[in-house]
Structure formats: C-alpha cells, structure tokens
Amino acid sequence: MSAAWKPQHQRILAGIYNGLYLAGYRKNGKTLVRIEYVPPQILEATPQVYEPRKPLSATAKRAGWRGYTLNVGRLPEVGREVIFPAPD
C-alpha cells in the first residue's frame, strides 16, 4: 500500500521520481532479512510499478479518495541493489 494517487500521478507526469527502499521481513514480521534500493532512473523506466487503486465507495469516510500500490514484481531484477545483508 502507498499514498494518494493524484499527487503521485502528477509527479510521474512531471518526471519526478525518488529512490525507493524495499524491506523484506520473515513471516513473523519482526526479523529483517533483506533491504534493496531501487534508484529513481529505474522507477522512471518502469512507471507501471505504480498501480492506482479504485476510489473509495460513496459511503466511506473519505469517499472518492484514491490511493495506489507499488507492484514491485514489475521491477527488473537488474534495477534492485541489495544493501542488506551486505553483498559478498
């Protein structure tokens, strides 16, 4: 899950990308096993990583609000730099 779609979409259209850190945990959610860094140029080359969610229903507290998710499965492996555990 991520934040609001409208500002992120505006940043994509403007060509503004920030690097992304991905943290991986064991199933217990407490043990960190991996951290990867994705540089901005990789995100710029694969904007389909950002997937808008459908708007909240009319009965929701923030009706019509729309968020987005990051589909990290769409990131190329070559664009991910493992920073923890330290590479050999």
Give the tally of β-strands: 5
Number of helices: 2
Strand order of the largest sheet: 1-2-5
Q: Can you name the CATH architecture?
A: 3-Layer(aba) Sandwich
When the domains are counted, the total is 1
CATH C-level:
Alpha Beta
Order of helices and strands: HEEHEEE
Low-confidence stretches: none
By CATH, the topology is: PvuII Endonuclease, Chain A
**Mind telling me the CATH superfamily name?**
Dam replacing family, catalytic PD-(D/E)XK domain
- Rg, Å, rounded: 15 Å
CA(first)-CA(last) distance: 32 Å
Helix content: 10-25%
Shape: flat
Structural class by SSE content: alpha+beta
In terms of DSSP E residues, the strand content is 25-35%
Q: Biggest sheet: strands, sense, closure?
A: 3 strands, antiparallel
Oligomer: single chain
3D architecture notes:
By secondary structure, the chain is α+β, with helices and mostly antiparallel strands. It has helices at 5-14, 40-45, and strands at residues 20-25, 32-38, 50-52, 68-70, 81-84. It is flat and about 50 Å long.
Descriptive terms for the model:
3-stranded antiparallel beta sheet; PvuII Endonuclease, Chain A; two-stranded antiparallel sheet; alpha+beta; 88 residues
SSE layout and pairing:
Layout (H helix, E strand, L loop, with lengths): L4 H10 L5 E6 L6 E7 L1 H6 L4 E3 L15 E3 L10 E4 L4
Give me a quick take on this structure.
The chain is 18% helix and 26% strand.
